């Protein structure tokens, strides 16, 4: 029997929340947030209870936060974890004998009963606790004991002992130094996975360093570093690099995923490893590890963090294929198995056998890969296809790494079934790619956001909304053109605290390899794609504006503050986000990339801090214009070919 | 971390339901019911899974019931516990390597790929399992192995080996004899508390044996036994007797709860114990223990079970007060504490100190009390005020008793806060008194029933709806007169599978001790109340009819099959209950005891098995009349001074 209350089981603590899968997985929180815990607490009989939320930081002992009774035997308390790492929390409750005695005494004295024996009982209760009371307070308690034991002639409240019995200062001392010898404690204590703010909030920019050269020259860490201030200038927080390791030659894919590569084809960075090294090496074409360090340092200077890809798979040329053939799967003829999704074959990739007999060595080697990059300043890993790897490996390695490096963040690139994505998040991934790319209509967006915001998923699953990736160019962007790019940017950046774009988005790149495909034509996965970011009419100013809104408004950094507002047009969606002490953000967005839409908004004024009667100002950050509104119904019209969105600050 | 999956953790089992407070408490079920279990099951990678619901009866080893995939990684399976006692259940899941191989082979052969190595892999998979396959099936498997290993020239489905590979009979054998070596099993297994049908379904009748004499003569077990066939004739299943033990003299309460008793006052049966004995003695005025045995035997003959009161409290004259003063609470002057609810004092009652140092002896003595009455044929205990006793005691004693006597049923008489009532149910009480008496309007009734039927309470809380008790005569009955008695009977008996009435209900007894009180005038708790059950115009024929409906319709024996039907009048309520293979019951009830109400019913035709187009017959059991209805909207009119209810059988 689990979650059992030990000790004084006359007090029963149930329904402790939050709790994830009965404590099998850790609930997640962000450093600095208020973490609230509730529980149902009852005991048999009429005695009064007190309860305390007990919590423990990764580095200190247990501390207490008082819990208060919300009614219907439900209690609540909270604390603010101030460091990343694994915290613990539980609930303790005990019978408050003195408060019970005092409550009953009030009733007895009110009824004019003789209370001589009851006063003696009170003196005994105080005496029993006297030693536990700090020395400086003992005088007060001793005085009460003496008063209770004094002889008295009068009855009721005229009895001077009665006043001593219900003295507030004595009651406060006793409440503050309770006897928890028979306390019930919810067991086992629950774990809380606290992460730094970036685990929830960040704007990501993905780019291939090798594309920062010219049409003929392979880019390097040095040329890539030259892009960093422009990326920072757009307001991004994280630059994510696809794998930077040596790329295999055997079965290398050519341009547009051709089965045979031309001699000068650069290959896919996800075909990791060659005679030049594996997961801890850098592709010599990009430079040396020192060059990488310079790149990381330059990023830091302009306020960017570097996220690396962690793709656990090998090209046939990876050193492990010869040094550790036992780390791979084998066919009956003894050859190493290449990746397959029958009938598709990926002969340039060897998947790893996580259940190998030699798994202790394998798992530790993979952990060392992460430690290597952490030692080079990387604290964010975008994990490639974690659902095709091993669940127990992820739970183990994320735990091991975060125990030493609690600032490390793992993003799961798992485009798979919802419950598999959920398990990865529960196992420890800080955040996850999502189905956002395929949610385009108002119905789809509202339904999906409500699932993310209003279900148990808030306890463990943090979304990262990518507008596009090197693998996903959605039809909506292919067909919708620049307005579609603006619309999807506003959705990604202002619905989800974490979001990202893949390089080229700012240039409206939108040609698919063929109709009906989500793959890019001339995909950067297989060739260099140098770009001219100075092109006129790019999305760069708008990206800058949206990222600025995110940075200026703490409301954008949270997920669960999302509130929808009614709009009588399926092509327009409106939502707001509010944070304490701030003007709420209100976004009204035309989802139709081909033009003009109008509608009546029916605002949830309460969510905006506005009243039904009082006019209030809304300031449109996009247009730099203010309006004065009154009441919940407002006319809006948006031409997506101009600006598809109002992004209002509500000055109610 | 609790509920962890052991072994092959690549398979993750979560969200196993039903589960109560993470397994801290047992889910309840009734013998013979289908018990359904669901779980979310996923693994990393694309391999196929199989899952099994594992269960264990109190007396046998583990058995398996297959689980099937419902979609979205949710699986379900069930079994039918066929004996009362503690059962166990869990979920096991494993990778089905052969099925995965077979699925992939289909795709490869379809694509015309060379599959020589894959066929070898298949042969190896079959060989590995050959020893686990029953001897009589091995020939089939060996033939498949031979076929897979034969040389072949052809490709695709022309290859004779391909046909052997996907042979259905081989697939069925492999599925039926899976390799569970790496199976994941949800741990720890959960416990299921299975009880006999009476724990959910029964009609109770409470009466005081001592009132079966005359105005001047104290009733006895012998005179009480004479009432039994009439009670059975009304269709009741259980007779519940208030305490039958010797009654204390000290501070005995007089008629109408007078502080001082007259010499011939009989006292309250709940002031248990005198020099004539305590909890295992019978009041000599009622007869001997042999007389009690005869009473129980007579009850059994007419199809009635006897339920006894289990009230753990003592009169000051109880033998324990002198033999075991340490089992009680004490005041500072050394005297035993009487019961109090400050400022009220109950000097005729000593409560027990369950936390006494001598609690091992005390608890075992209390257990022996139950065992004593069980040895005299009692298998149902109505427990007096269990919430003022000890939670851990109840959990312990119910467990101890039911381990030896799995047919024993405990009814909690806990009129207290909802979560305290919930904890008692979770600790093991089979059923509970409820707030039903105070739910009189349609709004109140619907809200309360929905809480009982559509919340997690269905896992552990079984209601017993009493129309009245010796303590509760609701204002609705006091003022509503005979129609109110009919209305409340229909509600109690046809909303809740268990219900009860307290003697005198059939005679419409409804005079309170004073206005605003729920206590009876001349309460039977303090005096003899011989009654004339032959009075004309009693409720007896109607009780008989309603109990007959309950017995004839399995639908009435269940709680969760309740469905409401819309009625456009707040004074009329309509519900139905259906059971497989039966005509559904439809009740339409006028809640206004003072007369006539009419309304339009808007039926949930689906719940009645009726169609929108096809006319259907409804037979009113009360009026012995049939109607033909068509469509969901039907006019009804009910005069509560005549018959407040239609009780229809729906012949759709």
Corresponding CATH architecture of the largest domain in chain A: Alpha-Beta Barrel
| Beta content of chain A | 15-25%
Unreliable segments of 5+ consecutive residues of chain A: 1-7
> In order across it, which strands form the biggest sheet of chain A?
21-20-19-14-13-12-23-22
Tally of strands of chain A: 31
Taking Cα atoms only, what radius of gyration of chain A do you get, to the nearest Å?
A: 31 Å
Q: Would you tell me the structural class of the helices and strands of chain A?
A: alpha+beta
Biggest β-sheet of chain A: count, sense, barrel? 8 strands, parallel
Oligomeric description of these chains: homodimer
The overall pLDDT of chain A, averaged over residues, is 96
The greatest interface here is: A-B, 56 and 57 residues
CATH superfamily of the largest domain in chain A: Glycosidases
CATH topology grouping of the largest domain in chain A: TIM Barrel
Q: Assign the CATH class of the largest domain in chain A.
A: Alpha Beta
Attribute tags:
TIM Barrel; globular; disordered N terminus; eight-stranded antiparallel beta sheet; 652 residues; 28% helix; eight-stranded parallel beta sheet; 24% strand; alpha+beta; Immunoglobulin-like; 15 helices; 5 domains; homodimer
